[in-house]
Automatic annotation (TrEMBL):
It comes from the Bacteria. This is PAS domain-containing protein. Residues 155-212 form the Transcriptional regulator DauR-like HTH domain. Residues 14-120 form the YheO-like domain. PANTHER family: TRANSCRIPTIONAL REGULATOR DAUR.
Amino acid sequence: MNYLTLTETDKAILESYKTVLDGLAEYLGDGYELILHSLENLEHSVIKIINGHYTGRVEGAPITDLALKMLDNIRQKKEPAALCYFNKKNGNTLKSATIPILGEKKRIIGLLCINFHTEVSFASILASFTPANSIVPGVTETFSDNVDDLITSALDEAKNKVYANPLISTTNKNKEIIHLLYEKGIFNMKDAVIKVAESLGISKNTVYLHLRNLEKENSN
């Protein structure tokens, strides 16, 4: 029996959250149980679960009484918001969160539930936050509060890398800098072409020429 009738858009929104769970699981580690509920059918609400061994649940499991209570609490608020709380399972303390998922017309169509199982060893938790477990080791990220700083930072990094490489000829240095910026997606930012051209002392058309050539290479 259906609890809600979901639109195709609602279903697509819920489907997109499955990759969110995968990303959270990779980031948070094994101590977290992650559950995605669809409110279409409460008897089989679990449409994705990670680390379900903690509670013995699998996809197709029903919603819990606590999740229903949290849903009711969320609906009583003027604006749907996540709820964080502690509860117990088999004598173990869990730190939990229930996050509403909104569909069309701001209806609550699903729940993203996170349970941290506090009995997990500290060593196991710590292991998930060490560089040795990084999927992409050595990656650095630039945190900027405006687009200009982001472009400038990426440009400076690319220039330093290219200018320090004696294997890149003088005539190819600008091309290689543009290539590095292209790979980072910098040219998706507004006015990036203008700023790069000014910094390298070349015309916008030259930058566009290099970008067209890169597009052609990637399409082959």
